[in-house]
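Journal club side-thread
Mid-discussion, someone asked how the predicted structure for our own chain would compare to the paper's figures. Pasting it here so we can look after the session.
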Amino acid sequence: MNFDSFALHPSVLAGVNALGYVTPTPIQAEAMPPVLAGRDVMGLAQTGTGKTAAFALPILHRLLTTPAPAPGKPRVLIVAPTRELAEQISDSFADLGQKTRVRTTTVYGGVNVNPQIARLRAGVEIVVACPGRLLDHVGQNTIDLSHVEVLVLDEADQMFDMGFLPDIRRILRVVPANRQTLLFSATMPDDIRRLVAEALTNPVTVQIGRVEPAMTVAHALFPVAQHLKTPFLLELLKHTDTESVLIFTRTKHRARRVGEQIEKAGYRAASLQGNLSQNRRQAALDGFKDGTFQILVATDIAARGIDVSGVSHVINYDIPDTADAYIHRIGRTGRAANTGDAFSLVVPGEDDLTVRAIERATGKPLERRRLPDFDYNQSAPSRDTEFARPPREPQRPRRQPASASPYPHSRYAPPSHQSSGNRGGNASAGGASRFGGRSGSRDTGGQR
């Protein structure tokens, strides 16, 4: 089978040929026919198997072969959990649709809202959005979703499982009921599968093999005490090809501090986490993709937003909470038929349940390794000096003007007291995350 067999519009097929694609991946071969036929589809496949093209190509074909009911109004809405993934999807549409005149724009928080409004007013066919900022546009009447023909929920399990379900339900209420709905994901646990029943109508389910780690990835666990993780990591890097290494931490604070330690050790490294401005996050991603940075230290916001085929190693500085999260993390290596290594630092006794779940997902025990020259007997410090935050300086209370709101920082304040640019943003973009929490809390990335 090749892409000619799908009878795609000539301009779409020209884009496919320009990229050098010849043979569709299994998820593309199985999912594209029902998507082209207008069916609702739930597609499940491992990360890095070509899910984006599986829905992008039929969507481009549809836009070119059916008339627009309202020219300039969005006909396709794609909802993604992170801004990195939204940009990645948008880039895929630009590449695949390079021979068409289909217009795409991204909508997410943490950046100025005005350029987004300007692009929407100029007219686009496809909007790729994160839920929070999209609903801001809906509330401000700066986007018209009444003509959406296709709704795509990408990485649906993460959106449903990480607190996005209320936003997704609101989005479902504002798009037309008579639409095609597509869900694509690497995993779909049974409890999440039940939730998607309210979004799809008589769907075709396409699942390519078991949802499990790619066979091209080798796995290893390194038991090490918590206080030795950073020196152990630096020693591990000495024994590792560090041309393209992705390191995951559990919190934003750790990502920043671990990245700083790696830089001090002489590596070209950057960190990627939700407290960074969008420009700095993009610079970190671009630098990792083009080889400027050998090592990228990230929180889970990057697990589904990095599309770098040459990542040789994924290192879990902190092991994730679930086997599904592990699959997504290590899915950044061993892509496009390349081989990769997944190393995890585990604190003995603390992560046994997660390790057993990962071993069930991989279908075999994970190899335990030790570094022969590392001193595992170093005693723990009396207090945490590596990740401790400096004490905050005391602040004098300021007198509040009589005309000011009595709740200036409340998320329940009237709209006139809220900045439209902050919802869907992160702390560095001028507001706390809707999930709240300190900078050391689990990173939601400010994507909403």
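Post-session note: The chain has a mean pLDDT of 81.
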